[in-house]
Amino acid sequence: MKLKNQDKKIYSLIQKEIKRQKETLSLIASENYVSEAVLEAQGSCLTNKYSEGYPKKRYYAGNEVIDNIESLAIKRAKELFGAEHANVQPHSGSQANEAVYLALLNPKDKVLGIDLFCGGHLTHGSSVNISGKFYKFYTYGVDKKTELLNYKEIEKIALKVKPKLIVCGTTAYPRAIDFKKFRVIADKVGAYLMADIAHIAGLVVAGEHENPFPHCDVVTSTTHKTLRGPRGGLILCKKTDRLDKKNPDLAKKIDTAVFPGIQGGPLDHVIAAKAVAFLEAKKPVFKKYAKQVVKNAKAMSEIFQKEGIRLVSGGTDNHIILLDVSEFSDSSKKIQNDLEEVGIITNRNTIPYDKRSPFDPSGIRLGTPAITTRGFKEKECVLLAKLISEVIKNPSKATKQKVKKEIKKLACKFKLNY
Ligand code: DSN
User: Fold this and answer.
1) DSSP 303-371
2) Does the reported pTM lie above 0.90?
3) How many Å apart are CA 9 and CA 15, to the nearest integer?
4) CA of residue 30 to ligand 1 center, whole Å
């Protein structure tokens, strides 16, 4: 029986969400709109299967098809990122990170990662996250003046801390990351280097951001942000552990950490959808898409600058724009709500060395992956940035009414085909 007839409440809530997604514009830097092919794979009968283990080494029968699907996903992931090994089973980016820590560290080992306030993630050692509770995390930030990563300063901290692992990669850093420089630092202190490329994965595969390989030992990612796949995680790594001569099989360490280390049965339907997304990301049209994502972010940044809204780090090299809205309001939460009222979906975010709390910080984070999927080019992005600026600077009823109409027009013109 179809959902519509069997569970009217959930069916109608899904219809409501489709309508919301169609009528609003997602400027959330970590969101995107997947293809119908990805949705189809994820909504398939593969959800019925249990397949603990890995291809050809399963604990349950009936996994011939699942083995083929997972092997294909692994092959595509390796080709896409130029990685020696891939594990496509992590249910999320957080679990991908957790698995890497389990594979490479012992409890209380020292790790160096970017501070949450400067664009890091909870799983980069926040005291409320398992990473911060089990391991001894130290942090580096961005330069107070330029708001850019200061590699000399990071090196100083690394030399002092002598971590076993250095984590690079962020969730709210609008600039390019120099993985080579991180590797030089890691080598100076004898540390592993892990890049969390959850945000920039799509830009990496399209050549719009430097590839973390060959510099990093391990790379973690999500598959649903700029990569435009299903919600999920991914780990890529070198085959050999260059720091552990006694037990040098890095690929095996990673696989064992994912299963049975932190997860049970993989989500086979999601793995199939990841494989579909990897195939899509290999196509020339995806390269064009990723290029446009960056162009759109730059076009919007220029408008915000003209409108006198401060950009953290003064610009963007990727899909993220981080606005400092403290000059216009005591509450970025209110700005987030004002924007939502007119159909622009964003998230409030801390800015480097924010004096306000993460619950109501000084920044608004914007990203262009989703609107670019809808077909936005620079022209529409310029208009959108002007509309956002109007709401930030003058959130009157009249402004909001006017902007809401404009957003509805844009959302209708750049349709979502669900
Ligand atoms: N929630 C993600 C983001 O918005 O960047 C990180 O996990």
Assistant:
1) HHHHTTPEEGGGS-SSSEEEEE-TTT-S-HHHHHHHHHHTTEE-EEE--TT-SS-TTS-SEEEEE-HHH
2) yes
3) 10
4) 6
Residue 140 host element (H or E): strand 136-140
CA distances from 116 to 119, 222, 253, 289, 418 (A): 5, 18, 28, 29, 35
Q: Please report, in tens digits, the pLDDT of each residue of the chain (418 residues total).
A: 799 999 999 999 999 999 999 999 999 999 999 999 999 999 999 999 999 999 999 999 999 999 999 999 999 999 999 999 999 999 999 999 999 999 999 999 999 999 999 999 999 999 999 999 999 999 999 999 999 999 999 999 999 999 999 999 999 999 999 999 999 999 999 999 999 999 999 999 999 999 999 999 999 999 999 999 999 999 999 999 999 999 999 999 999 999 999 999 999 999 999 999 999 999 999 999 999 999 999 999 999 999 999 999 999 999 999 999 999 999 999 999 999 999 999 999 999 999 999 899 999 999 999 999 999 999 999 999 999 999 999 999 999 999 999 999 999 999 998 8
Assess whether 155 carries a catalytic annotation: no
Catalytic residue among 170, 171, 220, 222: 222
Is 50 catalytic? The answer is: yes
Angle CA(322)–CA(298)–CA(236) in degrees, nearest 5? 70
Is 222 in the active site? yes
Counting Cα atoms < 13 Å in the Cβ hemisphere of 2 gives: 4
For residue 171, how far is its CA from the centre of ligand 1 (angstroms)? 6
Which residue has its alpha carbon closest to ligand 1 atom 4?
Answer: 30
Q: Which two tokens stand for residue 4?
A: 């519509």
> How far apart are the C-alpha atoms of 236 and 215, rounded to whole Å?
12
Which of 29, 20, 7, 8 is CA-nearest to residue 371? 29
> Which domains are assigned to the chain?
40-281 (3.40.640.10), 284-413 (3.90.1150.10)
d(CA 367, CA 172): 10
Tell me which amino acid residue 41 is.
A
The atom number, within ligand 1, closest to the CA of 222 reads 7
Please give the Cα distance from 96 to 274 (Å, whole number): 15
Using CA positions, which residue lies closest to atom 3 of ligand 1?
30
Number of Cβ within a 10 Å radius of residue 159: 11
Ligand 1, atom 5, lies closest to the CA of 171
**DSSP secondary structure string for all residues of 225-252:** STT---S-EEEEE-SB-TT-SSS-BHHH
Among protein residues, the one with the nearest Cα to ligand 1's atom 2 is 30
